[in-house]
Amino acid sequence: MEMIFATTNAGKTLEVKKMLGNVSLLTMKEAGINIDIEENGKTFEENALIKARTVSKLSGKIAIADDSGLEIDYLNKEPGVHSARFMGHDTPYSIKNAKILEMLKGVPEEKRTARFVSAVAVVFPSGREFVERGTIEGSIGTEIKGKNGFGYDPIFYVSELKKYSAELSLEEKNKISHRGKAVAKIKKKIEEIEK
Question: Looking at residue 118, which CATH number applies to its domain?
């Protein structure tokens, strides 16, 4: 099965390719699609569907899309659906991460709870579609730590593993990650369709 992944994020593409296994996953660039999709949904699910529907319609193929982000309880679940656009789309994550640590300066550990959320949508040319959500609970650490991962991984502390997300190997991360959980549910649905 061939799918087009509605993203320009190389880190996400690498993760999802590994999770889907025997699915041939093309990036938008590889499929010759060069558009900027406006993500104006109010939820992760709405944004994932907007992206997958757009790419499926343009390509006539099955499209998969992920919308994910970081919810910080102390900041009223911000940056949330605006995670990628927080402080501007082109602002490096090193600056975004430093800003979040600054916003939480002096906030006690028990009030730094946060989660990564991922909604993954699949849209078929026939119009059939489904979307699944995965989350991983943790907290915002007090420093930037780790060299792996991308985005907000260096400030997200995974309590169950006693490590920052950016300290996890790709294999460790995929087993517990928000995206890993959502993609596992999607993979199951695809396998049921293929039977």
Answer: 3.90.950.10
